[in-house]
Amino acid sequence: MSYEFYHNMTSVQKDQLCNGDEFQETIGQLGTNENMNNNNTTNSSLKRHATSERPRYSDDEDASNNNNYTTGWTTVPNNKQKKKSNDKDERVATNNSRTFTNSIHHREKQRTTIANDNNQNQHRINYNNIKISNYELSYAAEYHYSPFKLECEPKLNDKKEGAKLVNELLNYIRNDFKRENPSFSKPILVDLWWFDLEGNLQMIIKSTELYVYLCKKERYPSELNNIKINPIPPAHLPPQHTIILKWIKHSISDQDIKEELNINYKSLRSITTMNGTRNDRTRHVKVELLDKKDYELLLNNRKINLMGQLYEIDEFLPAPKILICGRCNQPGHIKKTCTNSTFDICRRCGGERTNAEEHKECHIKCHHCGADHISTDYKCPTLDDYRRQLIHELKKHPEKLPHHIQLFIPSEYRNQNDKIKIIQNKTTHQNYQQQQQYYNKNDQNQWPLLTQSPTTRTIEINQSLNETIKALSDELHQLKCRYKEDQQQIKEKYKEHINSINQTCMIIQQQQQTQQQIITTMTNSIKQMIFITGMKTTSAVSNVINKMKMKTNCNDYDEDIQQLARQTEFIKEMDSSFSIHINSLEQLADKQNEALNKALDNLLNDLNV
Q: Which residue intervals are annotated with compositional bias (Low complexity) in the record (predicted)?
């Protein structure tokens, strides 16, 4: 409504607008129309109506704006005509009444189908006499840890060598494991180990902390006792480190979730879509975390923001395990106690499995029911009946479960009006359930007082001490890492200084050799020019004077000849003395060079230590 339109209205019209007279008239007309429609459609009923025009939770803004009242139901007359097969987009219309489309019709339809199946299965199972032993209940309740595999080169066949290898592995990881888990007080041991047919080592570890620690391949050594090992940890972590992200839209891929979680949770190990949870629009995603703190933080938050949308977080609980015989493929016993068959039965075709190679691609036909599936498939009615009876026994006797075990009941095995999804030992949570009451949050007087017992205070103190020990251990580890980094930087800087000193010494030695060469050249030149040339010149002058004396027969040249002879002897003595002195200096220089080289070598060796 524009301002000009409101300005041109009369005062009476403005009063009617403020009083809401037009809205009341509209509501009255709608009520009249609804009464007329109710009279015309007396046989109509409120039903869930699955439309084919748009899927659930449609993102079509125009269609959603046309339906402002989404109560989750639609009025459909019982005498509506069948729609033609070539007109799938035609809507079911009623006389001027509002149509409410159910946004969760698909989920409710699934629940109705499951409830009907449960009733049929319950009727069928009542006539089956399936006995569940305590061993079967214990097997169904326990968590079965997957083995760790160590590929060894060379292969192993000696038990003593295998035991030594396991002990060396535990000694290798002991210090780092205690640093990561300072509150761990149990012995660091392997529960079971053996050699497989290929000569590799396989281990069973039932300690959750050690199990999670060894799931990282970089924590293994590459070689132990001269044996090269290649670790192959299990594919999944225990349920204590697994959460479920519920109702994730298909538009958000697993890689998108991984990138979002890696920002705040560095211990993320794997993300997988859970089998059997996928529908037209959503699915459940299982997330595994190595760090217990990240797991508890996510689980306590109960919600998480992914791609700008809020999703629910729930803990992952395993379903009960079925004990299946490896010989006859029947549930409820093991191969050692099997009396149903004297030979191994192939679970694909049902024939005798004497040669395993022949049964890798044999025809699939269940030998329990004759259907086209393997005999150990949960779709088989034999396994389905046994699983249903097993869950029924667990629900009747939850006290047989260990105190730390919680089992998830699949939706197809729940009763129609039973909303319980978990089987657990009720005595474990009895005290907590008694204290679980509702109070007025704004009234502090109605809040219950927490009972402070000595045991509770001791537990709190122990938890605080464990956290303090963990924090101090982390701080010590950080200090060690920082000190190592500083030492490494100093060593690199010192190494560069040593290299510069070494280069300087080499330059000095080269200069010394050059100077020595120059001195040797100058000495040879001096000897050549002064002594040798002087002796030759004196000898030549003496010869000339002798020739002149012989021609003139005069004795006046005798004194000159004697003077030249004395000069020649002087030059020879000077030459000999100079040569001896030069040789002495060269020997001294060689000794000085040798001493200098030794000193430099010792200096460089000391710097490199």
A: 32-43
Rounded distance between C-alpha atoms, residue 168 and residue 37, angstroms: 84
In this structure, are residues 568 and 545 in contact, taking their beta carbons and an 8 Å threshold? no
**Residue 475 exposed, middle or buried by CB count within 10 Å (0-12, 13-18, 19+):** exposed
pTM of the model as a whole: 0.53
* Whole-number Å distance between alpha carbons of 129 and 400: 21
Assess contact for 352 and 358: CB atoms under 8 A: no
Q: What pLDDT is attached to residue 52?
A: 33
The parts of the chain modelled with pLDDT lower than 50 are 40-105, 119-127, 431-432, 435-438
Q: Which of 420-440 are b and which e, b meaning 16 or more Cβ less than 10 Å from the residue's Cβ?
A: eeebbbeebeeeeeeeeeeee
Closest CA to 344 of 329, 360, 366: 329
Question: In whole angstroms, what is the distance from residue 55 CA to residue 251 CA?
Answer: 15
- Neighbour count for residue 554 (Cβ, 10 Å): 10
Question: Which pLDDT score is estimated for 14?
Answer: 72
Amino acid 440: pLDDT: 54
* Beta carbons within 8 Å of 230's beta carbon, 6+ residues apart: 150, 151, 153
Residue ranges in 402-453 assigned as alpha helix (H): 430-435
Per the CB < 8 A criterion, the answer to whether 276 and 263 are in contact is no
How far apart, in whole angstroms, are the C-alpha atoms of residue 55 and residue 57? Answer: 6
Q: Say yes or no: do domains 144-232 and 239-315 share a fold.
A: yes
Which residues, 6+ apart, have CB-to-CB distance to 14 below 8 Å? 6
Residues 346/353, Cβ–Cβ less than 8 Å: yes
Quick one: pLDDT at residue 254? 93
Task: Specify burial of residue 177 (Cβ count, 10 A radius: 0-12, 13-18, 19+).
Answer: middle
Kindly report the CATH number that applies to the domain delimited by 144-232: 3.30.70
Q: 283: helix, coil or strand?
A: strand
pLDDT at 509: 80
Q: Are 587 and 579 in contact (CB under 8 A)?
A: no
Residue 502 DSSP SS3: helix
Fold held by 239-315 = Alpha-Beta Plaits (3.30.70)
